[in-house]
What we know:
By secondary structure, this protein is mainly α. Among the domains are: 15-130, no CATH class; 183-274, Serine Threonine Protein Phosphatase 5, Tetratricopeptide repeat (Alpha Horseshoe); 491-570, Alpha Horseshoe (Serine Threonine Protein Phosphatase 5, Tetratricopeptide repeat). It is 63% helix and 2% strand. The protein is built from 28 helices and 4 strands. The chain has helices spanning 2-6, 9-28, 92-99, 119-124, 163-175, 183-195, 199-212, 217-229, 233-246, 251-263, 267-280, 285-297, 301-314, 319-331, 335-348, 353-366, 369-382, 387-399, 403-416, 421-433, 437-450, 455-467, 471-484, 489-501, 505-518, 523-536, 539-552, 557-565; strands at residues 34-37, 71-74, 104-105, 129-130. A two-stranded antiparallel ribbon has the order 1-2. A two-stranded parallel sheet has the order 3-4.
Amino acid sequence: MLAQRFGRALDETYREADRALGEVLARGGESADILICSDHGFRSGTDRPVSTESRIEKGKAADWHRKYGILVMAGPHVRRGVEIREPSLLDIAPTMLALVGQPVPVSFQGRVLTEAISEEFLREHPVRTAPAMEPSAEPERASSGPLAAGSPAVAHPAGAASSEDEAVVEKLISLGYLSQDSLNARNNRGILHMNKGEFAAAIADFESALADNPNQAGVLVNLARCQWLSGDPRKAKEILARSLKLAPNSAEAENLSGNVAMATGELAEAERHFRRALEIEPEHTDTHNSLGILYETQSKWQEALAEYRRVVDVDPDYGEGYNNIGNVLKKLGKVAEAESWYRRAMEADPSFAGSYNNLALLLQDRGDMAGAEKLYQRSVELNPKEPKTHNNLGSLYFLRGEQERALAEFQMAATLDPKYAEARNSLGVVYGKLGREKDEMEAYREAIRLNPSYADAHYNLGLLLLRRGEAAEGRRELELALRSEPRHLPALVTLSNVARGEGDARRAVELARRAVEAGPSSAGAHLVLGEALAASGDRAGARRELSSALQIDGSLQEARKVLAALGGAG
């Protein structure tokens, strides 16, 4: 019966869409530029939610939406055969305004899709901006551009509305797309601010929405996420507890609760929340991804891979899942496989910045600096407020000897996240290269203040103090580096050299042996052990270690020099 009644519903929907498009094309003629936007599509198969209904009035309809839709553009001013780079719904209005030669209000969130517009048109009608839109009583006729010679637009005066308008608004309210008290609008505005990293503005929007109705579980989840991202996990946990009381079967709230717990080191609690989320929604991809991250932090590599593979099996467009598989494979030493998964991540979700950053790191390790730079820059374009990417790009510039460019990136990373200790440490390194010793010292100390167990910062500060002749303080910082990271190879090597220089041969040998254990393939570690053994009188042991150093790196002249002094082969 249902099949007989609704079996042709989709076909009729397509037929109606084609009819409407035909009317638009007939009215516009060959001179019209046409933009066709599909909707978001709906999740299906194993990706179907089981805890909410797809009907707007019955459940949370947005849970059923897929991430991507389709945009097609055609017309005399549209370039043929080009791929549009990650368009958003927010880009449609600015692009339409540009195509009719009108300025784009600065208040608009999206961008003009210039890559889809012909170069000739853009030369004749460059993209312009205008002040934020203000209410206007009368529609304005275009004074320039393709619409200038057209007929004046028809619109109702401000404050008046046709019966058709009122009917449409009532229908949108009944479907849940509009809210008379604008709670939805404030919530959506908060999400936009949060996605842009404007957490204070987002929190204000969410709290404003909750002031009218404090029992909105979904808004509470958004507020909790914002508090967590802005660095207040305690407040996020409190808000999530309220949300779960209102909606105990929310997989989204359970997953977020698990992520907050994981960030604060409460791993058992995190797993409990993730398991609960999967009881509610067994194929909840965000939770499978979160559980994979939890396993990865515990070095449970196969368990992590299983979760990430489940993510991409359920949702082939989930770019982060492919990326995370690449991360695990890289840690397991499977670099070629990792590269393949990073590239699959970029294909699945070209807007996910993390895969570009991680592939760039891999190329940088391989020595492909030009390729790495392009990927870092693309990652920055996609997510300009991610401090780690700026820090990584700065490291690349530093390795290429471009200290001023490195400094700018490190400063940007530190500005974006004042609590990011790695950026402060990086600043210290580049200040040292530029001869700015005072700034170098302050940067290392700030990094240690932000993260007292940061081994690299203690090590770098120790080196600086040794250079300044402050041996006791320098040694202390190096020891603190080892306390935080007992296998910190550079600290072990440096402390061994310090001990040998102070005449403590036994201590020098002990530290050097630990260095070789930490880095058996490090020529420098074998060299320092050979030197320490020579200083202790163990000439045979010294020759053995120095020979090992030369087998690893035949160009190590210091090893040849010491070996020759011992009477060994040079």
